[in-house]
Write a structure and sequence with these properties.
heterodimer, A: alpha+beta, 10 helices, B: alpha+beta, 8 strands, about 45% helix, globular
Chain lengths: ~350, ~375
């Protein structure tokens, strides 16, 4: 039955996330961007929400995660990913892992300290596509041998585990790889255009020998398509959040800024673009919710997630671009956040697979 | 709880509407080419078939009457013409909203068109010049003025006319009058020559010393009268997207015949440019349709839907333009021929961002809301 009704629990969690975003995350956003790191206090704050730990629970809700990621991303998209990356890892283990994998890995993420883990799916190649992954896993007598290069991998230096997506037996499978496994090399810090607080790096897997239990789902295998669907939904949620950040900021700015005797916002050319920002942000959110609710019910969400992701990529970039334009020269200065959102929006819209709902 | 799945009942009624739209489509091009002929009240194939709109209004276990009605209209517009012509006009909604019980009783079985737009007043009803002056000698109102672009003008039994008034005491203001067909001084002009929606009955109305008793004065305040558009705006969005979907469905089918299909699993570098364009049009469709459902859902919750109604109308209108134009570009020169459906979709699809409040008017309403501006702050 079609409904946009949040449950009382969702509404409460949304309010708390919004408050954390406003009071704690937003003030640290510029620092994260400039220092190329998520401040420890922010990691603690993210962990205190329980958003990552709760994924181990069978009652985890993709819809609630989408709602929360939007709120976190209103404050800062990189911080939202600092939550969404380990979330994706834990959620993949909890929903697709074998019993042994769940028992071995989930308790590691139940503690009271922030713990990083990431899904390594993208590859440092200008023709990269999730449908053309080059990293390979081959069967060996004792397990698998993994070879390839992955990147950008968010939070790579801090992560204890990676879930590496590789070509295996004419399909795609995911493998749990410990950071310290022989043959795994984490490249130097490699900052990107945006989301600079995320410590991204390139990972090299040089004939890494994995035990038989390393394959997600073990002999049953995993469902990489579902990991990608979940990631696209999460990215759409985060792009909805960053779009809202831009919109809320420029609404205030254009009401205050007087040009030719009247506030900018009283000019239709500006006001209409603000209206379009609201229209598109709304649409992005409903598309995200739709994909998330299908995922939550266990249905096939590939199309809904692709549509949400495709639409959000287009609109978030447009909104961030207009945001810079509305501030004019001030939009180009690093004293204002819109130039950061402009870089973050471009970065977000190029990502695949690293986050989840 | 957030959910986007149709109930089995929703699906059943939507499927019925879809099947009827497929039948109706056979007539669409005839009435597209014969715009002076009114389509019959119902086509022969409609005999014995339930009207899905009636079913939507009364269905149990649906997603709700407002949501389901909009999805049924969405299907009907995909057919280009309705198998059952609506007996309901927006004027009926005004009657139901603001008239006295006696007035409702008298006209409840009439089809009542709504007449607002004038040559000098479209998006700005404050410029309306049509005026009713009270004649003390006969205790009648005397209506003078011209209304243009009036839907259902020829088929309706009466028109709900938005007008200025000068009463017996000389007070002035805005009000509405119900004018029945056949009232001396009320003439309906010829069918307008339009780009598309040519089966859609649209004429101008002329009122020359048209005398009306006080009983025909539907004395609601102007503001509550305008609330009828809260319901109709998202509905127009749903209708726009019905036309857009007909274009998308045809385009997807023709591309698939030529082995061009979207693989939703892949990323942007896995697709051809054509598949990517089609995907973006599908996304634009989905985006707009969800804003319609959001608005209709709020209406069902009795949450004042003003901004959401405007968002749905603006999103639907814009998406219909983009999608119907884009589909022709995707399929190339063969898509131009009149015997393919894209010709009509392209022309029909252009109206929705214009009528019942142009996209610009919706954006004014949305912008005022997010900026906390009055209509004086932002004009």
């Amino acid at each position: 039955m079609i409904s946009f009704q949040l449950t009382e629990e969702q509404r409460l969690a949304q309010t708390m996330a919004a408050e954390l975003a406003r009071a704690t995350l937003r003030p640290a956003a510029r620092t994260g961007d400039e220092q190329l790191a998520v401040p420890p206090s922010i990691l603690r704050a993210i962990w205190s929400t329980g958003i990552v730990q709760s994924q181990a629970d069978a009652a985890r809700s993709a819809t609630l995660n989408a709602i929360l990621l939007e709120e976190l991303a209103v404050a800062d998209a990189a911080f939202a990913i600092a939550a969404a990356a380990p979330l994706a890892f834990v959620s993949a283990i909890a929903s697709q892992g074998s019993d042994a994998q769940k028992q071995a890995l989930l308790p590691l993420f139940a503690g009271d300290q922030y713990r990083a883990a990431s899904i390594a799916i993208m590859e440092p190649d200008f023709t990269f596509d999730v449908s053309a992954i080059r990293t390979t896993a081959a069967k060996t007598s004792g397990g698998y041998r993994l070879s390839g290069i992955k990147g950008p991998v968010p939070l790579a230096p801090q992560s204890s585990h990676f879930l590496v997506v590789a070509r295996y037996d004419n399909g795609l499978e995911a493998f749990v790889v410990e950071r310290d496994a022989p043959g795994v090399t984490i490249g130097p810090k490699r900052p990107n255009i945006g989301l600079r607080a995320l410590d991204t790096a390139t990972l090299t897997f040089d004939k890494v020998e994995l035990r038989a239990g390393a394959r997600l789902g073990e002999s049953a295998g995993g469902d990489v398509k579902r990991i990608v669907d979940s990631a696209r939904t999460a990215l759409a949620a985060i792009m909805t959040g960053i779009s809202r950040a831009v919109m809320e900021f420029v609404v205030l700015y254009t009401k205050e800024r007087v040009v030719h005797g009247a506030p900018l916002a009283q000019k239709q050319v500006i006001a209409f673009r603000l209206a379009d920002m609201r229209i598109e942000t709304d649409a992005m959110r409903w598309m995200t919710w739709k994909a998330a609710s299908i995922l939550e019910k266990g249905g096939g969400a590939t199309r809904a997630a692709q549509l949400a992701y495709t639409y959000a990529r287009e609109q978030a970039m447009w909104i961030a671009d207009e945001g810079v334009q509305m501030l004019g020269g001030h939009g180009y200065l690093r004293d204002n956040p819109v130039e950061m959102w402009y870089r973050d929006a471009r970065t977000l819209s190029a990502l695949e697979g690293v986050v989840g709902v | 709880m957030i959910d986007f799945e149709l109930t089995p009942k929703d699906q059943e009624i939507i499927n019925l509407a879809h099947e009827q739209a497929k039948i109706a489509r056979r007539y669409a091009s005839y009435y597209d080419r014969h715009e002076n002929e009114l389509p019959p009240e119902q086509f022969p194939e409609a005999n014995g078939l339930s009207n899905p709109i009636d079913l939507a209004e009364s269905a149990a276990d649906s997603s709700g009457a407002r949501i389901l009605h909009s999805l049924v209209m969405h299907e009907i517009y995909g057919g280009g013409i309705a198998l059952h012509r609506s007996r309901w006009g927006l004027g009926n909604t005004v009657l139901d909203t603001v008239a006295t019980p006696e007035q409702v009783e008298k006209w409840k079985n009439h089809t009542i068109a709504i007449a607002i737009t004038e040559p000098g007043a479209g998006s700005d009803p404050a410029n309306i010049r049509t005026t009713a002056t009270f004649d003390r000698e006969t205790d009648e109102w005397v209506l003078n003025g011209e209304k243009i672009f009036i839907s259902q003008a020829e088929s309706a039994d009466a028109a709900m006319v938005f007008s200025r008034f000068v009463d017996a005491a000389g007070h002035r203001g805005m009000t509405t009058f119900l004018v029945e067909k056949g009232t001396p001084g009320f003439t309906v002009g010829p069918q307008l020559r339009k780009l598309g929606i040519r089966s859609h009955d649209t004429c101008n109305l002329l009122f020359e010393n048209c005398r009306l008793p006080e009983f025909n004065h539907i004395n609601g305040d102007f503001k509550s009268t305008m609330t009828v558009f809260n319901d109709s705006r998202p509905m127009v969005g749903a209708m726009a997207l019905g036309v857009a979907r007909a274009a998308l469905d045809f385009t997807r089918e023709m591309l698939a015949k030529n082995d061009i299909e979207i693989d939703y699993r892949g990323g942007i570098r896995s697709r051809s440019a054509i598949a990517d364009r089609l995907l973006r049009l599908e996304a634009a469709f989905e985006a707009a349709l969800l804003t319609v459902l959001r608005s209709k859902w709020r209406e069902q919750q009795d949450i004042p839907p003003e901004v959401e109604a405007s968002i749905a109308k603006a999103a639907g209108g814009k998406a219909a333009r983009k999608i119907t134009q884009g589909c022709i570009e995707l399929l190339g020169p063969e898509a131009l021929a009149e015997d393919h459906p894209l010709d009509r979709c392209f022309r029909d699809g252009r109206i929705f961002d214009i009528y019942e409040g142009a996209g610009e008017i919706q954006r004014l309403i949305i912008a005022r809301a997010i900026l906390d501006y009055t209509s004086r702050d932002l004009r």
